[in-house]
Amino acid sequence: MLKTILAISGKPGLFKLVSQGKNMLIVEALATGKRTPAYAHDKVISLGDIAIYTVEEDVPLGTVLETIKEKNDGKPVDMKSFSDDHELRKYFKEILPDFDEDRVYTNDIKKVFSWYNLLLAAGITDFAEKEEENAAETTEEKPAE
Questions:
Q1: What is the pTM of this model?
Q2: What angle do helix axes 61-71 and 106-121 make, rounded to 10 degrees?
Q3: How far is 64 from 66, CA to CA, in rounded Å?
C-alpha cells in the first residue's frame, strides 16, 4: 500500500499515485483530494522505499508506522504533547529503541509522525507489507512422486 503513497519535495503533505503521463505523474493529495501533476524534475519518493537508520540495519518505514499504530492504539500522535525535541526523541526511542541517534534528525522524526497522522486521516491503516501473502505466492506445492 505504501508503494503508491508519495512524498514530493517542496510540496506539503502526501500524495497518492493516480496515473502516469509522459514525463510526469498524476498525483492526488491525500488531505484535499486535489489532483496535480508531478514532473520529472520534482523529487518524488515512495513511502515504501523509505527506511529509518538503526544501529544494526535499516527498518522499513511501514514497520515503524505499524509500531506507532500499535503503541497509540490506532489513534493519531498528538504532536503538541511534546514540550521539546528531547521528549520527542525519547518517545521515538520507545517505538524504535535502536534507531541511530546521529543519523536520524528530530525533523525526520516529526515528519514520520506527521505522515502517520496524514495516513490515518486518509483512512490508510495497513502500513506493513503482508508477509503471509508474499510467502504464499512464492511457495508452490510440488506434486507427489
A1: 0.83
A2: 70
A3: 5
